[in-house]
Amino acid sequence: MNSRGEIDVRQIRQIIEVCRSGGIGRAARELGISQPALSRSIARIEDQLGTALFERAGDGAKPTPFANYIVSRAVPPMESIATIAREVRMMAKGESGRLRVGMGPVIRHLIFLPAVTTILGEFPKLSLKTKIGSTPDILKLLTTRAIDVAISSSEYSELDGALDQDHSFVRTDLVTLKLSFFARKGHKILESGKPRQIEELLDYPMAGIGMTRHQRAFFPAKLNAGQRQNLGAYQVDDYELVRHIILNSDAIAYAPYQVFQEDIRKKRIFFVNRDLQIHHHCVALALRETWLFPMVRNFVEIAKNVSGNLNDPEWQAQQSPIASNAKKLEHQAR
Fold it and tell me: How many whole angstroms separate alpha carbon 41 and alpha carbon 214?
C-alpha cells in the first residue's frame, strides 16, 4: 500500500490468491512468500481499509463480502494484464503462436475447412482453437477477447447493429452468399416442372441452419398453424444433417447452393425456384488491437482468397466437404 493508502497490484493479487486458495498458508506458497509475511500484509490492508477481509479459522481464511467485492472488481483487469505478454509474443513471432477463430456453421463448411488446410500448411507450429456458434454468440466471444478473429455469415443489418455498439472492430468483407431452396429427386413439389412460390414451399417441412430474423422476414408474416410448424421443423447446426434430411424425406432445404453442388450435378438434389434467394454476407471481424497480430491478418487474407473462389464451380467441387463425403460413400458402396 502506498503513502496515499491505495492498494497496489501486488496486494490485490495477494487478496485474490487468498480467496482462491482458501487459506493464508496455501496462498503464500502460490505467491512464493512466507506465511507470516502474507499475514502481515493482509493485516495492514485490513487496517488501512478499516474492515476485515477474511475470517480466520485454523489454517483457513473465509473471505468477507468486502474481499469478494475486491475480487469481483479486480480479476477482469488483472486477467487482461496477464494476457499482454502473450499478445506481444504473438505479434512479435508472426509465424507461430495461438490463433482462436469463431465462426458460424455456414462458414465452417464453405470457408474455414479449405482455409485451415492452407494456414496449417504455411504455419505448422500454429496452435489453433475454434468456436462455432450464431452471429451474436461469436461477436460476444470476440468483444470479450475469448477469440482473436470471427468470420460471420449474416445479413448486414444484424452485423451493423452489433458493430454500432463498438467501433473498435476491423471488418473485412469476404463474399455474399445466396441461400436457395432445394428438394430431393422425385419430390412432389418438382412434378410440375414449374418454379414454386414461397407459400407453396411451406406445405412441406423446412430444413436449414437455424432461422435468423432476416430469413424469417423472407416468408409471409401471417402463417397458419401447419405453415408455422413446417417453417421451424428442422433447424440444425450441420449441413451434412440438412443433406441427410432432404435426401430421405419430403423436407425442403434452404442453403447456399455450394454445399449441395455435387448432388445438384448428379441430379440428386434440385432447385425448387432459382429466383427465390436470401442474401447472406460473410465478413471477418477482429478487434483493432488484435488486428496487430500478423497471424490474424494472415488468416483473414487466406479466408478472403478462399471466399473469392466460392463462385468457381470447379474449385468448389474439389473443396466441398459434403461433396468429398458423398464421393467416399459412393466408393464404399461399390
Answer: 58
